[in-house]
Design goal:
By secondary structure, the chain is of the alpha+beta class. The chain has 3 domains: 19-171 and 254-319, 2-Layer Sandwich (BirA Bifunctional Protein, domain 2), CATH 3.30.930; 173-232, no CATH class; 332-421, Rossmann fold (3-Layer(aba) Sandwich), CATH 3.40.50.800. It is 41% helix and 22% strand. The chain has helices at 19-38, 52-59, 64-68, 87-96, 99-102, 141-157, 173-188, 196-204, 207-211, 215-222, 234-249, 294-297, 312-319, 339-354, 368-378, 388-393, 414-421; strands at 42-43, 49-51, 71-75, 78-82, 106-115, 127-136, 163-169, 255-256, 268-276, 284-290, 305-311, 332-336, 359-361, 382-386, 395-400, 406-410. The chain has an 8-stranded mixed beta sheet with strand order 1-5-6-11-10-9-7-8, sandwiched between helices. The structure holds zinc ion (2 copies). One zinc ion is lined by residues 171-172, 174-175, 232-233, 235-236.
Length: 422
């Protein structure tokens, strides 16, 4: 043993997902994929690295993410960022691959890791995972309602209840300007009560005041009594009404939350957040909304888009599923006695797999008893036993693990016999 060698540790804010838990992740991902398929969304895979400038321009220079949380990688002259979210990359891909010209309207989904250099704490990792979707190339309010219906479907499929859907509209850029001025106006007299950060935000990005976690700021914000009617133009007001009406028709519950603004600059019109009471301080399961100007701002055509992302780690925290060993995946375990039997067993194992029967054998030179225990732990349906006697007869002993019954079966037709019994 090399006792003096340094043992490496996982980087701070990251997590190993071991097998029992990884099976739960796969189940959740499979259910999400089925839902996306049902709603007509197709997969897209964009790289984990994007040019740094992409996020500065899309998320906004004043956002927490761009100011403090990006993992920047410099390589010769270039500057890349480990993606803190996927929307900007998907829009970049939409434009770069001319999807706006070939398909014009596309519905895309992704599942994968995101990175933010935050101080790690409960519910916040530096590598976390998103299930998300983007519908690019349409301003239709039906799409906003559909994407929320899709989220509801996914949460349902994962057995998640007790969540709350918060809904708001920021309106078009002009309305956002109006809202920003209204907020500055209403907060002016309360400046002294705000935290130092918010005092600064007041002029640079007043929306951030609404997100502040400081208790005093929260109190000030709660007294603002904002309503979208105060700042939405006719068109945006109609769009928001249509979204709400459609949600009502689909029997989807929502809470109108005038103080909801979302942390990123690119959002406009409909925005939403899904929170869950069991999550504690970091209670958002996911969020999303419209970003009708982002495609244009990144060099594409003027066309609307809407998207969302759900955090896989948080979904699994409230899904109430427990890690399990996933016993029963392996159907057959090959047990051998002696070196010659092992050689034969190894070939039979290959035949089982060629026949798509999940199977395995011992690689630790375990005793007969040890091999049987392993078969038991794996929860297999059958073991195949081969010793000197069996080799001579070119047959094997097939043991049904549930009943304990044993049968002798010839090497020639053992696959067919096993298939009959599976
Ligand atoms: Zn408007
Ligand atoms: Zn504050």
């Amino acid at each position: 043993m090399a006792e003096n060698l340094k043992k490496f540790k996982i980087p701070s804010g990251m997590k190993d997902i071991l097998s029992a838990e990884a099976y739960l992740w796969q189940e959740a991902e499979d259910k999400a994929k089925a839902a996306f398929n049902l709603y007509g969304y197709k997969p897209i895979r964009t790289p984990l690295l994007e040019e740094e400038g992409l996020f500065n321009r899309s998320l906004g220079n004043e956002t927490e993410i761009v100011k403090k949380q990006m993992f920047v990688i410099r390589h010769s002259e270039d500057s890349y960022v480990l993606r803190p979210e996927a929307t900007a990359g998907v829009v970049r891909a939409y434009i770069e691959n001319n999807l706006d010209k070939t398909d014009s309207f596309v519905k895309l989904y992704y599942i994968g890791p995101m990175f933010r250099a935050e101080r790690p704490q409960k519910g916040r990792l530096r590598q976390f995972h998103h299930i998300g979707a983007e519908a690019l190339g349409s301003n239709s309010p039906y799409l906003d309602s559909e994407i929320i219906s899709l989220i509801k479907y996914i949460l349902n499929a994962l057995g998640i209840s007790g969540y709350e859907l918060k809904l708001n509209s920021l309106g078009c850029p002009e309305d956002k300007q109006k809202l920003s001025r209204m907020l500055q106006d209403r907060l002016k007299d309360e400046t002294e009560k705000l935290c130092p950060d918010c005092k600064e935000r007041l002029n640079r990005n007043v929306f951030r005041v609404l997100d502040c976690k400081n208790e005093n700021c929260k109190q000030v914000v709660s007294r603002l009594s904002l309503t979208p009617e105060d700042y939405l133009c006719q068109e945006c007001s109609e769009h928001f009404s249509a979204v709400k009406k459609n949600l009502d028709k689909l029997n989807i519950n929502y809470t109108l939350s005038p103080n909801l603004v979302r942390g990123l600059d690119y959002y406009n019109r409909t925005i939403f957040e899904i929170s869950h009471k069991d999550l504690g301080a970091q209670d958002a399961l996911g969020a999303g909304g419209r970003y009708d100007n982002l495609i244009f701002e990144l060099g594409g055509p003027k066309s609307g888009a809407v998207g969302f992302a759900l955090g896989i780690e948080r979904l699994l925290l409230v899904a109430g599923c427990r890690p399990h060993g996933h016993a029963g995946q392996t159907k057959v375990f090959v047990v051998t006695l002696g070196e010659e039997a092992k050689k034969e067993g190894f070939q039979l194992l290959d035949k089982l797999r060629e026949a798509d029967i999940a199977s395995d054998m011992d690689y630790e030179n375990k005793s007969l008893k040890g091999q049987m225990r392993k078969a038991n732990d794996l929860g297999v349906k059958f073991t195949i036993l081969i010793g000197d006697e069996e080799l001579k007869k070119q047959s094997l002993l097939l043991k049904d693990m549930a009943s304990g019954a044993q049968e002798e079966i010839s090497f020639n037709n053992f696959i067919g016999e096993i298939k009959k019994r599976l």
